[in-house]
Design brief:
The chain is mainly α. It is built from 3 helices and no strands.
């Protein structure tokens, strides 16, 4: 893991690439550059919500096996099964 620099370097006017920006921010603390930043307006709409539920180990095992067999993410399979059973019942 990279360490955060303690001496404040000059913030570039722009970065040549997204990777260059990532490398800079990997080694610098953004809170030291608040005076250099401009506020922006953002319209954020959360279209979906994700919930965690407790599921027993044998159920998860069966879900993972079936998801692997169907070449699907387990979360998508679980969502589809619950929707079919509870919403479209």
């Amino acid at each position: 893991m990279k360490t955060i620099k303690s001496k404040k370097d000059r913030l570039p006017d722009e970065f040549a690439t997204a990777e260059a920006a990532g490398e800079f921010w990997d080694t610098h603390d953004s809170t030291e550059y608040l005076a250099d930043m401009e506020p922006v307006k953002a319209d954020v709409r959360l279209e979906r919500r994700i919930f965690e539920i407790e599921v027993e180990a044998d159920v998860i095992d069966a879900l993972r096996k079936r998801a692997t067999k169907e070449h699907r993410p387990a979360s998508r399979l679980a969502n589809d099964l619950l929707r079919r059973e509870l919403v479209h019942a």
